């Protein structure tokens, strides 16, 4: 039986990438159905026990590659890159290339 008088300390893994991609991490967690989840830099998609059907749905919803072995922050990084590429594409549609002088 554990000694109830002994104090235990919980130490979280780093969250540097989670902070860096914070807004996109929120999008990923919401899409996985776990917006309340506490994640760290070593949290993986597999931690959420998604079925193959749920994983396919997640890929479709986010529009990026997602595998069970991906870290959550890696998926968030792909979401950011996809959004950035879409903004660039929309910004350049219909514009003529500049002539060099």
Descriptive notes:
This protein is mainly α and 101 residues long. It is built from four helices and no strands. The relative contact order is 0.16.
What descriptive keywords fit this protein?
mainly alpha; 4 helices; about 0% strand; about 100 residues
Largest sheet: none
Beta-strand fraction estimate: under 5%
Instruction: Report how far the terminal alpha carbons are from each other.
Output: 80 Å
Backbone structural class: mainly alpha
Poorly predicted runs: none
- Range of helix content: 40-55%
Shape: elongated
> What is the H-and-E element order?
HHHH
The radius of gyration is 19 Å
Q: How large is the count of helical segments?
A: 4
Number of strands: 0
What's the average pLDDT? 89
Describe the structure concisely for a colleague:
The chain is built from 4 helices and no strands. The protein is an all-alpha fold and 101 residues long.
List the helices and strands and how they pair.
Blueprint: H1 16-20, H2 22-32, H3 52-62, H4 72-92
Helix pairs in contact: 2-3, 2-4
